[in-house]
Specification:
Blueprint (H helix, E strand, L loop, with lengths): L7 H15 L4 H28 L2
Pfam family, one: DUF2496
Protein name: DUF2496 domain-containing protein
InterPro entries: DUF2496_YbaM-rel
């Protein structure tokens, strides 16, 4: 697959994997950090939904 034709989320995932691998980040450290990032973005997503719902 030509990465230039890939969806934005796939491109971002490839970039993140490369960043972690190039910097020799341990698997457990990467997974822990990614879990924190996921939780943060889910919280932000929830806040955005609440904000949009309350403004209707």
């Amino acid at each position: 697959m030509d990465l230039s034709q890939a969806p934005a989320d796939v491109k971002l995932a490839v970039d993140l994997i490369e960043l972690l691998e190039v910097n020799n980040i341990e698997v457990e450290t990467a997974l822990s950090a990614l879990a924190m990032v996921t939780a943060d973005f889910k919280r932000k997503q929830g806040n955005a939904v609440k904000k949009n719902t309350s403004s209707e």
